[in-house]
Amino acid sequence: MRIVPTRIHGAIDYLVSLLVLVLPFAAGGQGAVCWLFVAIGCAGIGYSLITDYEWGALRLLPMPWHLALDVVFGVALLAVGALLGFSPLGVISFVVGAAALALAAITEPDPRRASRMA
C-alpha cells in the first residue's frame, strides 16, 4: 500500500541524507567509513535535488527512478552496517537503511496523485 505522499517523502529524504552525512562525525568515526557515509549522504541529497517532486530543484528525475535510487541508498546503508557489525554506528546504519527501504516501498510514486492524498 502506497500511503506516503511525495511531499512528506521529500522532506524525509533531505533529513535522512543530512543525518547520514553528519552521523559518523558525531559518533567519532574516522577514515574511510566516514567518507562512505559522506558519499551516501551526498548522493541522497543530489538525486533528491534533481527529482521531479515537490522538493526537487531541477525536476529531471522521475519519481519511480528516485524510489529505485532510494533502494540503492538503503542497501548501501545496510551493507555499511553489516561491515561495521554491532558497533553503535553499524546498528544505526542498518536501521536507517532498513527504514529507507520501507519508505521506498510505501511512497506513492506519482507526485500529482500524492498531492491529492494529503
The termini sit apart by: 15 Å
Largest sheet: none
Radius of gyration: 14 Å
Helix and strand run: HHHHH
Q: Provide mean pLDDT, rounded.
A: 94
| Relative helix content | over 70%
What ranges have pLDDT less than 50 throughout 5 or more consecutive residues? none
Based on secondary structure, the structural category is mainly alpha
Tally the beta strands: 0
Keywords: Membrane, Transmembrane, Transmembrane helix
Protein name: SPW repeat-containing protein
Transmembrane segments: 12-29, 35-53, 65-84
Organism: Rhodopseudomonas palustris (strain DX-1)
Summarize the structure.
This protein has 118 residues and is mostly helical. The protein has one domain.
Structure report:
The structure is a single chain. The protein is an all-alpha fold and 118 residues long. It has one domain. 74% of the residues lie in helices and 0% in strands. The chain is built from 5 helices and no strands. It has helices at 6-26, 32-49, 63-84, 88-106, 111-117. Helix 1 packs antiparallel against helix 2 (32-49). The chain is elongated. The mean pLDDT is 94.
Write the layout of secondary structure elements.
Blueprint: H1 6-26, H2 32-49, H3 63-84, H4 88-106, H5 111-117
Helix pairs in contact: 1-2, 1-4, 2-3, 3-4
